[in-house]
């Protein structure tokens, strides 16, 4: 009963993969490429390309379970990229071609973007938890001005870099797998531990279901909300590093564009209700992979790229309708009738 | 005098409860008729029946001698029945005039005639003795004026009957007088007014007659001259049980030291200057009508609405409690009055609901293991006799009494020094009620100090070693030992002593 919501997403994913298999019998084949030390294949590619959304959606799951949304995640992806590229290539006048160098200690290239994004997440959290603003409004602020901040940081320029260690984040291999997959696994494992092996997950659910009762039970609801937003900021930063490492550049306009929508979708497809309450990280992971599978499917179907969005919307609409309360009740009733 | 409204043998049944059982009610033209009763007595159900929100199962409503069946509030309004609710249901960002005429604006050349709206609004309000700028947004004015505007709106739709549902609960004394002046004017014009309030002074000041309901039954209709305050309160609260005071318990508490001492705490507009000393293992009952400040006091002690002055001492140490979390850390516990809104986390399991407060005190980084959680849950399920197949059932699926037991278990698990129970026995069946009372006494015997709030006087007298009586947001008396008689408490509540 508990997993019935996730079950819908899993079934939809399996169905999509089967369709892919019908179109391309070699869809599941995986090969090893010695030159890069990496495994190649469609499945690997889907997992790899879904990393950015999966990572962000881990935080988004908590926010939605608390009854809110975070619209700023896409903008934070751009901010992380801008900060990283600015540090990699500080002096534009001195170095006018991108190359295998960094002007700043690589440690800071990794840490500062994450710090900036975490602070921005905290800013969101402060507005919501202490300022009592509606999350959708509070995070709209950074959604709009985050990209502006990214532009200012890079003087409106698009920097590129050739620094090899930075390239590893988005394009490297570890244990024959693309590094983004490894990062995702680590993030998901940490979040699973943090929400289920500490009491944080229970508190998030309690606050999301009934904030007043949670407060009167002694839970510091404001602190829980603040932490959830801070975590989401940090995760957006990680996602931003992966994104900018893939393109070895910053792109204040397009980096993380519409990520907030994809992340929210992944959470909702995964069975967490927008009204808050019980959440499922596993469901969110499946939701994120599902979204990426749709994009791959569109490609294999030979559908023109202009129609991708419409096609994506169609499949998501079907999944969400199948999960909706009336439909699930209808099926439960039919199941009950069949039994008796 | 002729009756403009007659409600005969009204019956309404909700799942499991009879909300109204053959209730008669009548209203004359040009009278203020108070409708009285404690929570759950059926006052609002009766009003909702009259305004078409609830459908009656049987009975009839006669308006000016003709039978009517209001379908919804809009329909009731066209019939001439207008309601002003406690919560002002106007739009704060629209102007006063717009609020009065929204939905029925006078038109001129197919356009809204603003001049006419403002002129008529001014005229209407000046009839109430209110000279205000009607083009200002409603939120610019005080609650009392907003209340008047909402009455003006109700009256302007040619109402014959005006229902005022607790209009005075957020008004100060001067504002109440302003409202009463308007009520008297409307009365003089021949309107019938149904007035619902918890303030007895106001009942006696403004009404001509009163009807008392209790548990969905009609207790009676009287003129104000017929019924003194003590009899009124007795009728509202009911006297089904003549309580005997338990001397042993009072003496046991006498000898122990003070657990909680509060002096002169208060929150502006909610509770005025409250002081109390509770001894270890003592059970203090809070008596008083709804709105007397008993719940507000409990919320203040627990830090849900932090006190703005005074001091608190727990076991001799000064403490400052400004949040429920702080109260929890000081080993206090609080079962709130509104179980559904402030107590249960509906979608979480019984187990999760039980461990919640204890876990909150430990912080989320020090989780109770699943084994510890199950142990606690199973312990309290069997100790309190919670009727459930297992600890993983959602608390929202339990009956009221069992939900209350789970909330009690949540606080018992924290082993509190001071436990505050706000109406723990309301809305639950007799069996569960007795069990909860027994449990409360057992906790006292084990050394927990308990504050027990209840509307049912016999329950308070039977269980408490000391009774605090509250009236009009103030503590008006503290009775102990033989002084705790029903008669005495009733007199104090009624303000006749």
Topology record:
The complex is a heterodimer of chains A (340) and B (497).
Chain A lengths: L3 H20 L6 E4 L4 E4 H8 L1 H15 L7 H16 L17 H24 L5 H19 L10 H8 L1 E2 L2 E2 H18 L3 H10 L1 H6 L4 H27 L11 H11 L11 H21 L6 H16 L1 H15 L1
Helix pairs in contact in A: 1-13, 2-13, 3-8, 3-11, 3-12, 3-13, 4-5, 4-6, 4-11, 5-6, 5-11, 7-11, 9-11, 12-13, 13-14
Chain B lengths: L2 E12 L2 E12 L3 E5 L6 H8 L7 E6 L2 E3 L4 H7 L1 E4 L11 H6 L5 E2 L2 E2 L1 H13 L16 H14 L4 E5 L7 H16 L3 E5 L3 H7 L2 E6 L2 E7 L5 H9 L9 H8 L3 E10 L3 E9 L3 E5 L6 H8 L7 E6 L2 E3 L4 H6 L2 E4 L3 H5 L6 H13 L7 H15 L15 H13 L5 E5 L7 H16 L3 E5 L3 H7 L2 E6 L2 E7 L5 H9 L3
Parallel strand pairs in B: 3-10, 3-11, 6-9, 9-10, 15-20, 15-21, 18-19, 19-20
Antiparallel strand pairs in B: 1-2, 1-4, 4-5, 7-8, 11-12, 13-14, 13-16, 16-17, 21-22
User: Radius of gyration of chain B from the CA trace?
Assistant: 25 Å
Helix content of chain B: 25-40%
Tell the overall outline of chain B: globular
CATH architecture of the largest domain in chain B: 3-Layer(aba) Sandwich
Structure description:
The complex is a heterodimer of chains A (340) and B (497). Chain A is mainly alpha-helical and 340 residues long. Chain A has a domain of 233 residues. Helix content of chain A is 69%, strand content 4%. Chain A contains 15 helices and four strands. In chain A, strand 3 and strand 4 form a beta hairpin. Chain A starts with a helix and ends with a helix. With 497 residues, chain B is of the alpha/beta class. Chain B has two domains: 225 residues, P-loop containing nucleotide triphosphate hydrolases (Rossmann fold, 3-Layer(aba) Sandwich); 248 residues, P-loop containing nucleotide triphosphate hydrolases (Rossmann fold), CATH 3.40.50.300. Chain B is built from 18 helices and 22 strands. Chain B has a six-stranded mixed β-sheet with strand order 6-9-10-3-11-12, with helices on both faces. Chain B has a six-stranded mixed β-sheet with strand order 18-19-20-15-21-22, with helices on both faces. In chain B, strands 2-1-4-5 form a four-stranded antiparallel β-sheet, covered by helices on one side. In chain B, a hairpin with a 3-residue loop joins strand 13 and strand 14. In chain B, helix 8 crosses helix 18 and helix 13 runs parallel beside helix 15. The longest helix of chain B has 16 residues. Chain B is globular and about 75 Å long.
